[in-house]
Amino acid sequence: MFLPALAAGLIAACLAGTAHAQDAEDDTAMPADLDASMTLESQENRGAVTNLPLPRYVSLKGSDGNARRGPSLSHRIDWVFKHAGMPLKVTAEFGNWRRIEDRDGAGGWIHYTLLSGVRTVVFEDDHTELHSRPDDKAPLTAYAEAGAIAKLGKCSVEWCDVSSKDADGWVRKTKVWGVDAQETRD
């Protein structure tokens, strides 16, 4: 029985999805009120700008996104995210800037226009099984490779429905990054 590999061409792109910026300009000081806004956000678990939950997951809208040391264009670029659709976690807000991190903890401040509310996940392991239903005994629909990215659909406490242009199916939530352990979605 042939089962398609989910987004096979994305492995190298996802593993090389971030590039450390070596030639960036000098860092400047953080705005004085930045620490106060982050403290307030962490106490309320809501973004001071959007009033959306923190932390929360988003995805990279385009194929390039500069993550800076601070929330302005004058701050040094620490990372360049290179893969459209990459899931990212928003951990703070300041004006038009969002502090984000990827599954490895790399990140920084990125302008909100470079982010999308479309939810995606990245597969953690090679040969991750996708099933036709949220059940380990359900027929397999595909295998996903480590680093492949898929669009996130419904989620129960243990399973998520995911899809890409190559395949779709249900995956155990522990096999992907981009969704919280207790998060459910309809």
Automatic annotation (TrEMBL):
Q: What lineage does UniProt assign to this protein's organism?
A: Bacteria, Pseudomonadati, Pseudomonadota, Alphaproteobacteria, Rhodobacterales
Q: Tell me the superkingdom of the source.
A: Bacteria
Gene3D superfamilies listed in its UniProt record? SH3 Domains
Signal peptide region = 1-21
What are the record keywords, sorted?
Answer: Signal
**Name of this protein:** Aspartyl-trna synthetase
Keyword Signal found: yes
